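Feature request disguised as a bug: please show the residue count (444) next to Peroxidase in the output. Example input:
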Amino acid sequence: MNYDDIQGIVLQERPTPYVGTYVLLSIDHQQDGKVMLKRLLDEVTSAGQWNNPHEGAWVNVGFTYQGLQKLGIPKESLNSFDLEFREGMAARAAKLGDVNESSPEHWEDPLGTDKVDVALALFAPTKEALLQAEEAARRIHCELNGVSVVYQLDVGMNPDGRTHLGFMDGISNPRIEGNHIPNAVGQEAEIKAGEFLFGHLNESGTITQGPQPAELGHNGSYLSFRKLHMRVATFRRYLREHADNREEEELLAAKMVGRWPSGAPLSLAPEADDPALGEDVSRRNAFTYGDDHKGLKCPVSSHIRRAFPRDSLQDSVVNVNIHRLLRRSTMYGPILPKGVMEDDGQDRGLIFAGICSSLSRQFEFIKTDWLNGGNFAGMSTEKDPITGKNEGEGMFTIPDKPIRHRMKEIPSFSITKGGEYFFVPSMTALRWMAELDQHTSKEE
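Example output, currently without the count:
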């Protein structure tokens, strides 16, 4: 792999701990957009620069379809992008289950509108370094009246390294074949690079064709960006109402997630949490569901088993490897103090960032068929208990002997507050986009 050509966010895990911010830009004048592009070339962090980033912070960039249009990308190139990307996430909300409270009409402005053209992801190990990254972002659009900031959201790692629901996050990510950069979380099987990068061999044995020409598409990726508000107090109350004591609350939560709060998987620690296992990167992903077809250890409908079924579907025609995502998600908002059972009105949750080469086959398939799909593994009436759109009518089956337990009236614990599809170009593509006028002149 050409690490100097691929943006760092694709191949690299963020450090621990980290702080960050997402900055969304709107392009009102094409010429100012081109100037911004040229400035980006000196600031964007490639995978090869990751261990020694410019000014101690990581800067990566993505563009919406509208953003590429505004930058003057030729029509034939625009038409070579996948339909899902061209339509945008808001237009595909019904398919994704973003309805009722999660529908685009309720999304946070400007998410899901034609105002969002560029996304800058800024991350650093310290707040001081993040300030330097923010200064770099200001330089990118400084004195450009035709480029404006339309949204900014601070993100980071909670002090205990867990999500707002209390679980260790970022544990399970596929390793990319040919990527020799150490993966902090991996012990899973390697996946062909073409599942995440255009112009590389994929799991089907073909080269993943990206946008054209090759200078634009090669070594690029799609990124699915979603802001998910987490109803932490609602989650805690549901556990309290359906368990007799704290130990049962923790077990019920673990059954719904598929892991204990420490990250230890139920498949390896079915009876009680095992913090040592949760911290052991060599063991916490080294499991399958082959010995647990009925879900007695890890329920078939649990969150992690739905998001990545491993060998659960080995008797079906589904090849799970063609549906994998690289997750680069982060937390936002203040922590709800332990023991608090009522909502405090604060916005808190997860910024989901999923990297892939096919929005339909990877992100959208997982969201619709595995997480929200009622027929997943024969669970015709159930959705993901954590991220599914259950809306007070959800059910969740916990297999047990002599009789199973069925949880009912599960509410929606996550609400979509907005989202976008972005194209994450290579460094070569960024230069090609910045010099597009020159290309056109030479051809003429």
